[in-house]
Amino acid sequence: MTRSGTGVYCLELPSSVDRSVAVQVSPEGGTQNAGADSASWAGDCGTNGIQVMTEELSMNTGGNLVSSPVNDVSFLVLVP
Q: What are the tens digits of pLDDT across the range 47-62?
């Protein structure tokens, strides 16, 4: 796994794993901002990798939901 920017990770899979199969990404319980953290699949990267983005969700002064990339979100990735 490599981090290419704030909240942007590339998880390189073995060549025997087809990255086009369903991949589930979720924030792990017990992170710093539990309930306000997000981890999601964001496409492909590398030779046979998947990209994961981690964000902190909050409300701005106008009441709109906004997200900010962060590096402090633990996440799980499941590959069938």
A: 999 999 999 888 888 8
